[in-house]
Specification:
Layout lengths: L1 H11 L5 H19 L3 H21 L8 H18 L7 H11 L1 H16 L12 H7 L4 H29 L1
Helix pairs in contact: 1-4, 1-6, 2-3, 2-4, 2-8, 3-4, 5-8, 7-8
Length: 174
């Protein structure tokens, strides 16, 4: 999980503000669930991660003045993957609890899957760079860099909102 999410966030860092905004939204969702479960340390790290990525986003939005790079993306990948591992939503059935993890990080996971499968289908290495990420596909459809980032953030917000809905509805039914 940790290696996969680290690489997913790193792959996803191909658009000004894309990875930072998405990690901020994911971390906010993690914080909300952790606070609901009384997991103060998980919530605190998630809130700090949200704040730091939002602060970074001021300078990383299009046109970016600073870049995250591999070190920043891999670091954020470690943080959010460990946060999701440490998060205990306390819901049953257990599949609901496990389903929250990929929902909280859905857009970077989806982006990585699309890029990897696209490259394999074309007979090239999945580790070769390319223009087959979600951001590149949205820009080819005519969205600006800024609107592409907003679209990806909105998608991530919908997935995190869905995870919070699953969490809330499952908590109520217990």
């Amino acid at each position: 999980w940790i290696i996969g999410i680290c690489n997913s966030i790193n792959f996803f860092d191909n658009l000004d503000g894309g990875a930072a905004g998405t990690v901020a939204i994911s971390s906010l969702g993690i914080a909300a669930i952790a606070l609901g479960e009384g997991q103060e340390l998980v919530a605190a790290l998630a809130i700090v991660t949200t704040g730091s990525t939002l602060g970074f986003l001021i300078w990383n939005k299009s046109p970016a003045k600073i870049y995250m790079g591999d070190a920043g993306a891999l670091f954020l990948g470690i943080i959010v993957s460990v946060l999701t591992i440490r998060l205990n939503p306390g819901i049953t059935p257990q599949w609901s609890s496990i389903a929250l993890l990929p929902m909280l990080l859905a857009v970077p996971i989806l982006d990585t899957c699309i890029a990897v499968f696209s490259r394999i289908k074309r007979g090239i290495s999945p580790f070769t760079g390319g223009r087959d990420h979600l951001s590149h596909r949205l820009m080819r459809k005519g969205l600006s860099k800024r609107n592409t980032a907003f679209a990806l953030w909105a998608m991530q917000g919908l997935f995190v909102g869905s995870a919070l809905t699953v969490y809330t509805c499952t908590k109520r039914s217990e």
